[in-house]
Amino acid sequence: MQAFSYRTIQQPTQGVYKEKGSKFLAFAYPVSSEAAIKEHLEALRKEYFDARHHCYAWMLGPDKQRFRAADDGEPNHSAGDPILGQIRSRDLTDVLVVVVRYFGGIKLGVGGLISAYKLAAEDALLHAVVDTREVRKEVTLRYDYSATPEVMRVIKEFDVAITAQEYTDGCVLQGTVALQTHPALVEKVALLGALSVRVVLLPDAPASV
Can you supply a Gene Ontology BP term from the record (predicted)? Predict the structure, then answer.
């Protein structure tokens, strides 16, 4: 089923968990791309260069189909999966959670690690403010100057967020519209065309903003 909205965090947050001398520092970030994820990971690895492990999990996209969990040297599924589980349990996306571990000299065992990474990630996410955002789709409108009043009425009616405008031999308006109302916008633009107003809608790929 196609998602019309999604939940993500407003700003970066931190958390911490300690167990038998080991210290688990957790960091949660709002992200929108794998490039942004890479930047955060590189920054943490540079700042906490002396830590033994930098385990993480991330989720991207309103449909939550892009995700990854990484154990970074811990036993398989003992670190990344518990972190990802906390993201999923809160129904979040466009989020990265990293847990940096400083080893305290006493082994925790697989069960202890699963619990520690889960609780560290949980602590970071408990401090986060969660937003529910609508999924939006990019659109481009091309029209004659004479059609401007009709186009502006459509823009207002469907709450199109204008991102760029160009005026040359005609008019080009780029913006985003809620995915849920996009079909109705297409229908309305087609109706304007039937009234001899030259308006063309060029939909792009869905994009979240």
Answer: regulation of translational initiation
Q: Where are the alpha helices (DSSP H) in the chain?
A: 34-47, 80-89, 109-126, 148-157, 182-194
pTM: 0.80
Query: What are the start and end residues of each CATH 3.30.70.240 domain in the chain?
Result: 135-208
Instruction: Tell me the pLDDT tens digit for each residue of 139-166.
Output: 888 888 888 888 899 999 999 999 999 8
Cβ contacts of 95 within 8 Å, gap of 6 or more: 8, 9, 28, 29, 30, 31, 58, 59, 87
In sequence order, the 6+-apart residues with CB closer than 8 A to the CB of 61 are 93, 94, 208
